[in-house]
Design brief:
The structure is a homodimer of 162-residue chains.
Chain A: E1 2-5, H1 11-24, H2 36-45, E2 49-54, E3 60-68, E4 77-84, H3 93-107, E5 112-119, H4 123-131, E6 135-146, E7 150-160
Parallel strand pairs in A: 4-5
Antiparallel strand pairs in A: 1-2, 2-3, 3-4, 5-7, 6-7
Pfam family, one (chains A, B): Acetyltransf_1
Protein name (chains A, B): GNAT family N-acetyltransferase
Domain N-acetyltransferase (chains A, B): 1-162
Chain lengths: 162, 162
């Protein structure tokens, strides 16, 4: 597996993965019926950088974004989001992308990484981020409207990188 | 005092207040050297609505913004930011604007209000938000680069509105 920057030619392969992930309504706040243009704005235009995890044969395994979490005086803390292709789950892709993103964040001069809305029912993700050194620093009551479970809590998770 | 929606004609009076507030670098993450265009984008274009608190004679006493804190499945939680004119401090303007914003948020259908980066050294604000029913639900270690004090903690504060 290699992790490399997104290129325009990747979009036709990338966006259906994001569409299906958001459509599930169980991990990301992006509207489940987000249009291709809205998804492109969120995953390509808004972030500082977008990365892809690819198999040796070029197949897309996952993707992540990296951006400052706040402007100016909060801009030393970055924010990331990760998506793993369904057929690639359980192979350590999320873990590898998260480690990669921390290295990349340090390289770009960020001092910490913050996740703003980790859905509490996404137990696998919470367990993985903890294993990788992130702490739950806050709980947002009923801040996520889960497609199946209704309003559920979300966590703010944080890791100091320096 | 009245609280009313921002109109274009208010900008010449409003933006120097925002410029000076951000320039101080002790309460908001917006870069202290933000340009007029950047400030307009942050305070007028990006928010769902922008409000002004004005004295009977029309003088600007304060301003606040209201917007969804997250898209889609997090869009039932709103976010607000408040600025009080230096000469109007200690007169309950922030408190009145915060109460107004909670009513407005409920009117717009929001179920909760979240502040993402309350600077821990801004003790007056923290005390006021607590008094108005907000809870510190998270602490972000050294997440704000204070112009005088360097890296200081910031709080996530939250209030359920329904």
């Amino acid at each position: 597996m290699t992790v490399r920057p997104f290129q325009d030619a990747d979009w036709p392969q990338l966006w259906p993965l994001l569409r299906d992930t958001f459509a599930a309504g169980d991990t990301y706040a992006f509207a489940p019926d987000s249009s291709e243009a809205e998804i492109r704005k969120a995953w390509i235009d808004a972030p500082q950088s977008t990365w892809l995890a690819c198999a040796a044969d070029g197949r897309l395994l996952g993707t992540y974004i990296l951006k400052p979490n706040q402007p100016g005086l909060g801009g030393h803390v970055c924010n990331c989001g990760y998506v793993v292709a369904p057929e690639a789950r359980g192979q350590g892709i999320a873990s590898a992308m998260c480690e990669h993103s921390q290295d990349e964040a340090r390289r770009q001069g960020f001092r910490a990484m913050q996740f703003n809305l980790v859905v509490s029912t996404n137990e696998g993700a919470v367990r993985l981020w903890r294993k990788l050194g992130f702490h739950i620093v806050g709980t947002l009551p009923r801040a996520f409207r889960h497609a199946q479970r209704g309003y559920v809590d979300a966590y703010v998770m944080f890791k100091t990188l320096v």
